[in-house]
Amino acid sequence: xxxxxxxxxxxxxxxxxxxxxxxxxxxxxxxxxxxxxxxxxxxxxxxxxxxxxxxxxxxxxxxxxxxxxxxxxxxxxxxxxxxxxxxxxxxxxxxxxxxxxxxxxxxxxxxxxxxxxxxxxxxxxxxxxxxxxxxxxxxxxxxxxxxxxxxxxxxxxxxxxxxxxxxxxxxxxxxxxxxxxxxxxxxxxxxxxxxxxxxxxxxxxxxxxxxxxxxxxxxxxxxxxxxxxxxxxxxxxxxxxxxxxxxxxxxxxxxxxxxxxxxxxx
Length: 266
Description:
The protein is an alpha+beta fold and 266 residues long. The protein has helices at 7-11, 17-25, 27-33, 47-63, 68-78, 83-90, 93-109, 173-186, 213-231; strands spanning 117-125, 131-132, 141-150, 155-162, 192-199, 204-207, 211-212. The chain contains 9 helices and 7 strands; from the N terminus they run H-H-H-H-H-H-H-E-E-E-E-H-E-E-E-H. Strands 1, 2, 3, 4, 5, 6 and 7 form a 7-stranded mixed β-sheet that branches. The chain is globular.
């Protein structure tokens, strides 16, 4: 049984793994991004983030049936990539082509019907862990799955694309648990969920063990509530900045009191 969800957690939802990660690290960044002082991030998108967006877009299109060459051209033009960015994007071409072929074979092998393939699919979860629309304000949790398939065996397969450096799978443990919870909310009758990370750069598809539906209900759902309660501790006090490694990538660093330059003396 899940612990009771406190009011301060519910009223600041719907949550995601990334949103909970923000409040866990720095309450002031959370306030700038989601709270009373909400405002646009000041820093521009980085090279890596723009490249990652382009790779995801090309993959999404190629998996939907668009020819790989056309998918890459669209991603290049739609995001208005620079020459250097486009050169980096093209370095992912063979990996994307190989992944699409691998998934076509997977669908045949596991009886995946066309209507049971989901690309960039938005899923919302209510406090009782039932499915709600992604933008439902009373939802507890939500997320977007890069690529998912419902097999003939009634299992959900969720694959997340990573365009950056390959990391240990422990880095994605919370994210993969969340995908299991989202999948069960969307399809309450599934038998289980299996998640994987597609490291596009290295063309490595790393699988997690299959998780039965009863484990998601009995272990993962209570884990999520506990995770959110612990992450939201800082909501109970006025927002203060917390300095850490993540400050280098914070879009609000120029206005953060930890880094703001004192006024020049007259």
